[in-house]
Each structure stands twice: as C-alpha cells, then as structure tokens.
Backbone:
C-alpha cells in the first residue's frame, strides 16, 4: 500500500475515534408519545475513503466496516470485499425461523457492478431508460421490473416506491449498487420467492395508541388517531379470520398499552406476523399526503426516516432476523393499500426508532394510512367506508 493510501486510512481511523460516542438519549417509538411523525429526512452521506491502489470497483465505506469489524479485510480483485467474520452474527439467541431455511450470505460492504450482479442472478442486465433529469435504468426479472436512478435512493418496484440505504453510483463507467442494498432490497424483490409466513397462521394486529396516548388529532373533526386505528383493527379481524388466520389485537378498547406488552403479546401467542396500524400527521402543515409502510432498517444500512433520532448503522435488533420477509411483506401491503385507496405512494420506508417493531421475532410492519393533518385525507379517514377499504386491502395482501 502506498504511503498516501496509508495516510488516508489512518486519517479515517482518527475521524472515527472522534465520533464513536454520543450523549443523545435512545429513540422512542411514536406510538408511546403524542409526538407526530416527521417528514423524511434527507440522507447525509457517511464519510468514505477510497483506497486508490485497489481495483477500480472496490469502494470501501470506512465507518461501516471499521465500526463493525476492526479485523483486516481480505480484498478480492473481482471488486468484492468481505470481512473474515460475519459481524452481524453476534446474537447468541437468534429469532426462530418462520420460513424455509435459506443459505446464510455474508454481508457485502462494497459497491458492486450491477451488470455483474444481474448476470450472477441470471436476470436481465440494466437497461438505460433516460439520461435526464437523472440517469435511469431498469432491471427485469420474472417477478417484475425495478427502476433506479443514479444518485437517488428512491427506486420503484413494479410501480411501488421502495427506499434504498445508499443511492446507486457510476464508478468507472459502470452502474454500481451497495452490496447490502443488493442483499437486503434487490434480491428479496427481484429474485427470491415470496416468503411463507409459518404454519400457525397467527397474526397480532396492533391498533396504534390508546387511552391517554391519543395519537395525532384530525384537523377536520378533532377526533383522535386512537379511535380510527381501533376501528380499522376491528374491521380487519373478521376478514382475516375468514381466511383462516388466528387474530389477536393488542387492545380491544380504549386503553393505553405499553410497547413492551404489545411485543410480548406477539411472543406469547407465537405469532407469525405483527402489523401495527397508524395514521400520519405533520401538523400544522396541512399539505403532506399519502400512504407509507415501515419496516426495520437492516444492520449496516442507513434509515431513510430518522425523525431526528440517532441512526446507528450497525445496531441490530431481533427483528433484523426477518429483513427479507419484512421488505416483501411491506411491499405487498403497500401495493394492496395503494390500489384500494388511490392514496399517494410515500413508499416502503426503513426506520430504527419504531420500538414496537425492533423487538419482534417475526416479520413486522407498521402502516401509516394517510394524514390526519391534511383536510382531504382526514375526511376520508373519518369515513367508515374508507376504513373498511383499508381493512379489505390488508386482508387481500395477506392472502
């Protein structure tokens, strides 16, 4: 390694030493406070160092690698780098396996040629769709079409918005995608078969808020979010039971239920799925609209929603054992709800601060089905017919 590369590498280590600690308090989930969900935060790229004497397609993100595994890396000349050990396999009590066993793939922290990856997966190569305003490509597999743009974390999968951890880049003339995005987002959608959600067919539905925790308030009639989420859950329960599901609600009336108790109920019932129901708000701003689904951010990727809370890249939770199932479930729910309601697509989002998801040992998703701070959407949410549509859309997705 040249003296310049060594100097740059050491500078990266010194930078990490200065920002490895934080005095900020741990994040709280919005379902345990009356704070409203905030707008999507723009991603600030993690500082990176390019080792100039390595192959051109190798681009190592020093904070990601060094915070996880200080053991020296083995650099392969084909553009991939892998740690000697799996930094994410530290949990001595892994969550139970719900779907069929799958081979464990070591996380890849480098940028990878999308052309090469699609060839390895035996799917169509990237096709150039447009050169402006962003350079845009499409990838086709038997399951559908994924469209991505250079410099944008937002992709569309069969028309539904999904957010990546890192924006694709062009490196030496090749379209490159971060290895973790390929493993945690591209592969589950483009290549992997839909996950089977176990044989028990047990689901826990979580009507957000309750009791003194009212949630957000409708700008139209001042009714609280907790009322609408409970009605939605009550409408959903019989629809799922007709499909053979055993359904449990975290609350059946207007009571405040601790986040830990919501998680514990799913654990005690050996639930196959957990689904938390919410409505959104950006009061006093009445302009935002649309529907979003949330699942836990995979370890090693940045969240696209932080709500001002720390986003520790390599923080891992029990629910991260279901990263593949989470994104597949979230996409199916988002698609079905958009089709049924016609709401604007705010995408499949990744977040770490949602406490009701982090401790789950099963596929788990949170839905924000429209804005109570927007007059038009608040009027729709107040309609029983609309809430029935929401219930039917969720039931359809889980068929």
Residues:
């Amino acid at each position: 390694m040249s003296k310049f590369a060594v100097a740059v590498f050491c500078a990266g280590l010194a930078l990490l030493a200065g920002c490895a600690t934080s005095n900020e308090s741990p994040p709280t989930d919005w379902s345990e406070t009356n704070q409203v969900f905030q707008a999507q935060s723009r991603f600030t790229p993690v500082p990176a160092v390019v080792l100039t004497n390595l192959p051109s397609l190798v681009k190592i993100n020093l904070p990601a690698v060094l915070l996880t595994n200080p053991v020296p890396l083995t650099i392969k000349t084909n553009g991939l780098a892998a740690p000697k050990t799996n930094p994410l396999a530290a949990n001595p009590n892994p969550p139970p396996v719900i779907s069929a066993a799958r081979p464990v793939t070591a996380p890849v922290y480098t940028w990878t040629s999308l052309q090469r990856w699609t060839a390895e997966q035996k799917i169509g190569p990237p096709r150039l769709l447009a050169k402006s305003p962003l350079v845009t490509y499409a990838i086709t597999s038997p399951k559908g079409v994924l469209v991505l743009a250079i410099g944008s974390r937002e992709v569309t999968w069969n028309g539904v918005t999904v957010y990546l951890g890192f924006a694709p880049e062009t490196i030496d003339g090749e379209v490159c995608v971060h290895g973790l995005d390929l493993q945690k987002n591209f592969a589950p959608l483009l290549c992997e078969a839909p996950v089977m959600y176990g044989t028990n067919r047990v689901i826990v539905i979580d009507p957000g808020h309750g009791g003194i925790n009212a949630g957000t308030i409708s700008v139209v009639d001042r009714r609280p979010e907790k009322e609408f989420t409970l009605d939605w859950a009550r409408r959903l329960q019989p629809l799922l039971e007709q499909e053979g599901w055993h359904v449990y609600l975290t609350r059946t009336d207007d009571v405040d239920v601790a986040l830990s108790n919501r998680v514990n109920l799913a654990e005690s019932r050996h639930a196959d799925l957990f689904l938390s129901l919410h409505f959104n708000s950006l009061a006093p701003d009445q302009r935002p609209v649309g529907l979003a689904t949330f699942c836990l951010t995979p370890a090693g990727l940045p969240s696209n929603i932080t709500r001002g809370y720390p986003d520790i890249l390599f923080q891992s939770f029990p629910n991260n054992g279901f990263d593949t199932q989470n994104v597949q479930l979230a996409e199916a729910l988002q698609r079905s709800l958009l089709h049924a309601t016609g709401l604007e697509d705010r995408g499949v989002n990744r977040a770490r601060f949602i406490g009701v998801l982090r401790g789950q040992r099963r596929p788990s998703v949170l839905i924000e089905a429209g804005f109570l701070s927007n007059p038009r959407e608040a009027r729709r949410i107040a309609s029983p017919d609309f809430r029935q549509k929401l219930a039917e859309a969720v039931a359809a997705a889980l068929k």
Notes: The longest strand covers residues 273-280.
